Amino acid sequence: MHVIADLSIIPIGVEASVSPYIAACERVIRDTNLKHRLHAHGTNVEGPWDEVVAVTKRCHEVLHEMGAPRVNTTLKLGTRTDREQTMDDRISKVEELLKQQ
Amino acid sequence: MHVIADLSIIPIGVEASVSPYIAACERVIRDTNLKHRLHAHGTNVEGPWDEVVAVTKRCHEVLHEMGAPRVNTTLKLGTRTDREQTMDDRISKVEELLKQQ
Amino acid sequence: MHVIADLSIIPIGVEASVSPYIAACERVIRDTNLKHRLHAHGTNVEGPWDEVVAVTKRCHEVLHEMGAPRVNTTLKLGTRTDREQTMDDRISKVEELLKQQ
Amino acid sequence: MHVIADLSIIPIGVEASVSPYIAACERVIRDTNLKHRLHAHGTNVEGPWDEVVAVTKRCHEVLHEMGAPRVNTTLKLGTRTDREQTMDDRISKVEELLKQQ
């Protein structure tokens, strides 16, 4: 099952500047073959379901190893069976519609 | 890794009354040994990480089999290493604090 | 516009035990006339849209006053125009379907 | 109160191709002065809290006017009082850390 996901991870019980933790998870994602794109509230991740959830688990493990006592993730998972679609397709389709008016 | 999760699943491209789909996913959850509690915007699910994500995948499969062309889930995943905590602990701790004032 | 919402607030940059912050936001919610129900990953809140978002803003202000340098909320907002529905309706409809099989 | 938000809106009870609805909400966002960036699972929106939540409400109204009987939004709201930060700051800080290794 192919999934277009969005991974938004937050360490709890650490300092307010969480970018080192976000970067650590980002490295985990970039070490895979999954398509990914960082944004201001998470990272779009696309590929096989099992790999996407494995990456999420690995991020939790890494953040705990870095010292975060608690880690919270909001993981959005979108699957479809009617046709193939990539995360780029999603964005370009909306952008096209916006140009038409 | 133990996780307190929240699974919120939505079929897209079907009728507005989505309760049969929610109930189908709820059955998948209840067929496991995971702790669970249905609320108005999803279901709290607690247990081993791998079982929680396996249940989520199974829900997507079941909803597609029911005819939903698209399925979107928002899965919240909370892990902690400082101490053990159940979903009941979380709620009762807040309720206690509320009584103190 | 009537909304069935779910408010999940997390203070960042504070200690790992966040229940005093959750309780403070819960007090803000309970000081209104909005229907509410605490669960292990947030609070279901139901009522007029403007009141629900006002409560969310007030929770952010209160948590910052308590010393949280950063506050993150995931707010789910569900509206419908086809018919009236309460958060209790949502749950009981799913529970009924589960009993039928 | 300044907020870095993420708005992810889904019409329920309509066809599986929801891009016209996403585009309609995107137009509402682009008609404001809020900073915004579309991604594959929503739109980052940044600016004053009240404007961000007003845009969200307007998107719900517009989607209902387009015929969606139900509309669900997941709105992430991030505020901080320790220092100013834009959504571009967030991304560039993580990108910098990734280059360092």
From TrEMBL, chains A, B, C, D:
Residue span(s) of domain Thiamine-binding protein: 5-95
Domain of life the protein comes from: Bacteria
One Gene Ontology cellular component: cytosol
InterPro entries: MTH1187/YkoF-like, Thiamine_BP, UPF0045_domain
Transmembrane segments: none
Family: Belongs to the UPF0045 family.
Protein name in the entry: Thiamine-binding protein domain-containing protein
Taxonomic source organism: Litchfieldella anticariensis (strain DSM 16096 / CECT 5854 / CIP 108499 / LMG 22089 / FP35)
